Amino acid sequence: MAAQHAPAAAHGHGACRSVAMPPNARQWLEYIRALELPSRVRIMNVCGGHERAITMAGLRSLLPSTIELIPGPGCPVCVCPEEDVALAMELALQEDVILVAFGDMLRVPINRPRREIRSLEQAKGAGASILPIASPAEAVRIAHRNPERQVVFFAAGFETTTAPVAAILAEEMPDNLSVLLSGRLTWPAVAMLLDSGEAGFQALIAPGHVSAVMGPEEWAFVVHDHRIPTAVAGFTPESLLAAIYSTLRQLREGCCFLDNCYPEVVKPGGNRCAQRCLGEVLEIGDADWRGIGTIPASGYGIRPHLARHDARQLFPSHVERTHTVESRMPAGCDCAQVVLGRIYPDQCKLYGRTCTPRSPVGPCMVSDEGACRIWWSGGVRREQHRNGVVA
């Protein structure tokens, strides 16, 4: 199909407004291959779910070799500070509490000698009461079933996960339930990359689920402040390819805008109810990202009127002891560079050697949203990466 017959964008505006939508991924690939691109184009995808869909569908091997898809800072488990994991471990081991956390968090190691307890999973093996859960509602049920015990919910996540945590805080929480919150906002990490002058990408695929909650407008700054084509995508090959095509067409025609390639879920303004709930019970402040440092206005904290459900307020002595833990990646681990999109997973010296899903060294090999874990699960082994293209 000739390039001039392809739609200008998935759901564009102005001079780039679309006139037709192809029915399947194969035709999106034809449109992409028909574009005349001047040079290599690096497109960052922010979301770990996007990276999983891209890798499992083999999109990198199907796209022209001039197009690089860069995994970005889309894994909350990967950036959860060491001090938060250390605090959760200390509470579970030294207090008579039941600690619950999303399953991925249990295997995240921190920087301690191997003879010491280094993860929640190991703390559980040492006798601590630690339970994996899949949703905040499970934490509430566990608290109701154990009224004689304090239940601490270690909640790490981005906006999509933090919104239901905010919802249980906004309701009548059981008196014996508190939250150890390690929530982060997605967009400030991208803003930090762009403001650093070393972003290393020419287009952005924005996360569909975060945009469904916070609204696609949250990503408008990428277009307006940095003149970088941006498209919100869902998690099917069709939606991802539509977003890739949109950003490529924008680059080719110099027509930069924010495109929504996930309109069936992402609506203008996002989920107002979820946003209102987040604003009522949580406040935003500077926050530490493991291996990266402090990013301004990138973290959620529980508002003072809910101090009785804030684990940090209930156990201040433990907070003080663990606050000095440096939020570093393990020696030799390049997870932070992977999260920032500066190297690919298999370019880390430990990838596939001392670091595998069975024996992870860094958090990126633990989480289902971590780029290293995704690439390994997708069959990428060492030395398979050549010039930005996965073999």
Notes on the structure:
- The chain has 391 residues and is an alpha/beta fold.
- It has 3 domains: 3-72 and 216-260, HypD, alpha/beta domain 1 (Rossmann fold, 3-Layer(aba) Sandwich); 77-185 and 270-322, HypD, alpha/beta domain 2 (Rossmann fold); 333-381, no CATH class.
- 37% of the residues lie in helices and 18% in strands.
- It has 17 helices and 13 strands.
- The strands form 4 sheets. It has a 5-stranded parallel β-sheet.
- Strand 3 (97-102), helix 6 and strand 4 (130-133) form a beta-alpha-beta unit.
- Helix 5 packs across helix 15.
- The longest helix has 17 residues, at 237-253.
- The protein is globular.
- The relative contact order is 0.17.
- The model is unreliable at 1-10 and 386-391 (pLDDT under 50).
Q: How many discrete domains? A: 3
* Class by SSE composition: alpha/beta
**Assembly type of the shown chains?**
single chain
Total strands: 13
Portion in strands: 15-25%
Number of helices: 17
User: What's the end-to-end separation, in Å?
Assistant: 27 Å
CATH topology of the largest domain: Rossmann fold
What is the residue-averaged pLDDT? 91
